[in-house]
Design brief:
Blueprint (H helix, E strand, L loop, with lengths): L9 H15 L4 E7 L1 H4 L8 E7 L5 H15 L3 H9 L5 E6 L17 H10 L2 E2 L5 H10 L5 H27 L3 H22 L11 H8 L6 H4 L12 H15 L5
Length: about 260
């Protein structure tokens, strides 16, 4: 099932139509996609207006640069867009030109996770086309939905699981050295790696690992029982105590409970 854009204000809607009309007239553009809150129907008047402009895969970097510069010049002349930019200090117009080339990287321990699943989730799975969908977008949905192939999924599950375990193992080491703030930073990193592992295990694309956690766990993973166990993990009342070690143990127990669904 494909989402339909839902805009919280008339101004959001009017600006979206301007974006759609402009890019639909560019030959290499396949589909104009609304992403994030407005695509999922959870936007509020202060929400950003986010787009992913899907172009044909053979479009050159020089052509993309030309499109971006032309859009910047055009958008500065549109009264509704200028009005939107002054509407709220929190509401922004974000527009990314994408080519639909999703390439997984090696998830190495000790480094930040990539955005492979997040990009596919937001741009292909949970996005909402403004109007007509192009052939390329339809082919990407067939390729990546409901999820990517099992061989790659198993590889990424193991890598994400190892990365999370590596960080959890290091937390007592940092606490022992008195590096409590760094230990908390590693705990937060491990928390996001846990979420990545959880989503891969359940063949579900995420929205993000740092926000919309409740929505994702309850609505997309269908695990309402899990959320009460997640929210306390990053709640620390005294950072220079053994709390972070205890929270790491809580996360360790949750990591041990993940089952890889075949």
């Amino acid at each position: 099932m494909m989402n339909t854009p839902m805009f919280p204000t008339r101004l959001h809607n009017d600006v979206a139509e301007i974006v759609s009309s402009y890019f639909s007239n560019i030959s290499c553009v396949d589909t104009v996609l609304v992403v994030n809150s407005c695509a999922r129907g959870v936007a509020v008047p202060e929400s950003d207006l986010d787009f992913a402009i899907l172009i044909q895969p053979k479009t050159t970097p020089a052509e993309i640069k030309k499109i971006e510069m032309a859009w910047q010049a055009y958008s500065q002349t549109q009264a509704e867009i200028l009005k939107y930019r002054q509407y709220s200090k929190f509401a922004h117009l974000h527009l990314d030109i994408i080519n639909g080339n999703y390439t997984p990287t090696i998830l190495e321990v000790g480094v930040a996770s990539d955005f492979f699943e997040i990009e596919i989730g937001n741009q292909i799975c949970y996005s909402a086309p403004m109007h007509d969908t192009g052939f390329y977008f339809q082919s990407l949905r067939k390729k990546w939905l409901p999820y990517y192939n099992e061989e790659l999924r198993l590889q990424r599950f193991k890598m994400s699981q190892c990365a999370c375990q590596y960080d959890l193992d290091h937390i007592p080491f940092y606490i022992k050295r008195g590096l409590h703030f760094h230990a908390f930073d590693i705990l937060y990193k491990a928390f996001q790696e846990y979420l990545q592992t959880l989503f891969i295990a359940n063949k579900t694309y995420p929205i993000a690992y740092n926000k919309w956690i409740k929505e994702q766990v309850i609505k997309y993973l269908k695990m309402p029982h899990l959320y009460p166990a997640l929210s306390p993990i990053l709640s620390v009342s005294n950072i220079e105590s053994n709390e972070i070690n205890n929270k790491a143990m809580m996360l360790q127990n949750l990591l041990n409970e993940i089952k890889f669904l075949s």
